[in-house]
Amino acid sequence: MSAPRSSSRRPAPGAPQAPGAPQTPRAPRAPGTPSAPGTPQAPGAPRPLNLPRAVRVRAGRDGVPRAVEGRAVEVVRESWLVEDRWWTDTPLRRRYWEVVSASGRNVVVFHDLLAGGWFAQAG
Fold first, then answer.
1. pLDDT per residue over 71-101, tens digit each?
2. Phi-psi region of 62 (alpha: psi -120 to 50; beta: other; left: phi over 0)
3. Is residue 91 a contact partner of residue 85, using CB atoms and an 8 Å limit?
4. Counting beta carbons within 10 angstroms of the beta carbon of residue 17, is it exposed (0 to 12), middle (13 to 18) or buried (19 or more)?
């Protein structure tokens, strides 16, 4: 009988590591994204599109965006709430806003209602 072979497989992201094992630093990521930007992808693997990016939003007391990235909001076209993955360890709860800036640019931003912070979909 031969000795058992050791596995060269890496643990899944977020899996507990063996005591004393060197800790791998993790880059910050926007909530709800599958991996941090810049994470190497396997050749031929699908890559996520339209990942959220952090943006500066000035909102009124009512939570409505008044400025995005320093540009005044002229019109709020639509707002909607997304609640998903409530059955998992990483639920998602976001308030989306479609706004038009004073320069006429259409922008969709969302406020992460669980972790905080404002984000825009990178287009």
1. 999 999 999 999 999 999 999 999 999 999 9
2. alpha
3. yes
4. exposed
